[in-house]
């Protein structure tokens, strides 16, 4: 790593498992549990905090040992660990970021932008751009969808081709075309090197120069120790506190868009107003259950 001129870190869901966010293909991953008829358990991304590996990567970027980060994670933990936004590409989007469909202005939120999306594939968040008034959409990339931002592929390809050391961590290397970017470094003259850290086997195990079966936190701890970097600061403040909060106006607009009427009941649950109709329906069901219970008892 010290000899590399352009080391790029490629990270996947495995780097966030120690933050109690489930990965996809691990023993307790989302797809693994779904195939077994179960449900993966873990924290919501908004409750999670950056891991040791996140902070270690940020420190290596700060020291110039890692030049760029490419991730398929949408949990915002890299940025929350202090990594500058211009030194990372989040190929599958960011739950805290929404973008104007007209002018492209980015809006960073302290809450999960997808919480007000009515149709997943439409991505519209029921909010509007502060600059031009255009519609805002979340940046999350779902299966079979193209990348949400035009520069994602160009920057990913640029840094992958420039890379002479690819540090790949916490990814099954099964998602395409994301998995093809690290091997771009092998096409250089002389070819670069690939280091792959993941607990499960991957289709690229026979291609890489070094294969490590380890948790990313454990690997990064040993790497930092080998580099003589054992004491470094981690971000204590949550950067999301500096970003926009959900406003009453935002909620009013969401309510009108979702239900076609103005919001009268201001009670909220999980940042989304609960429709009065739900309260009425619940009351009616409760009344019916009482009547049926009395009838059955007297029968």
TrEMBL record:
Positions of the catalytic residues: 92
Residues covered by the Deacetylase sirtuin-type domain: 1-230
Binding site residues for Zn(2+): 100, 103, 126, 132
Gene Ontology CC terms: nucleus
Transmembrane portions of the chain: 272-296
One Gene Ontology MF term: metal ion binding
Entry similarity comment: Belongs to the sirtuin family.
Protein name per its UniProtKB record: Deacetylase sirtuin-type domain-containing protein
């Amino acid at each position: 790593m010290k000899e590399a001129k352009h080391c790029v870190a490629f990270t996947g869901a495995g780097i966030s498992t120690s933050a109690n966010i489930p990965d996809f293909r691990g023993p307790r991953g989302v797809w693994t549990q779904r195939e077994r008829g179960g449900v993966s358990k873990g924290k919501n991304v908004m409750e999670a905090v950056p891991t040791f590996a996140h902070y270690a990567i940020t420190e290596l970027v700060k020291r110039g040992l890692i030049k760029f980060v490419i991730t398929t994670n949408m949990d915002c933990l890299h940025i929350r660990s202090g990594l500058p936004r211009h030194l990372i590409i989040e190929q599958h989007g960011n739950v805290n970021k929404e973008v104007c469909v007209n002018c492209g202005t980015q809006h960073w939120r302290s809450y999960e932008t997808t919480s007000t999306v009515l149709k997943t594939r439409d991505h519209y968040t029921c909010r509007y751009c502060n600059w031009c008034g255009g519609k805002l959409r979340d940046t999350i990339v779902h299966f079979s969808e193209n990348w949400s931002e035009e520069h994602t592929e160009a920057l990913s390809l640029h840094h992958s081709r420039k890379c002479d050391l690819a540090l790949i961590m916490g990814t099954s290397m099964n998602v395409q075309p994301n998995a093809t970017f690290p091997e771009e470094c092998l096409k250089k003259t002389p070819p670069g090197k690939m280091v792959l850290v993941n607990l499960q086997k991957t289709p690229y195990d026979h291609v890489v120069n070094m294969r490590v079966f380890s948790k990313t936190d454990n690997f990064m701890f040993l790497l930092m120790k080998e580099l003589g970097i054992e004491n470094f600061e981690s971000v204590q403040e949550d950067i999301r506190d500096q970003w926009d909060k959900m406003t009453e106006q935002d909620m009013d607009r969401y309510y009108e868009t979702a239900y076609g009427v103005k919001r009268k009941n201001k009670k909220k649950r999980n940042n989304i107003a609960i429709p009065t109709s739900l309260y009425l329906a619940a009351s009616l069901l409760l009344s019916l259950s009482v009547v049926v219970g009395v009838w059955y008892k007297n029968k």
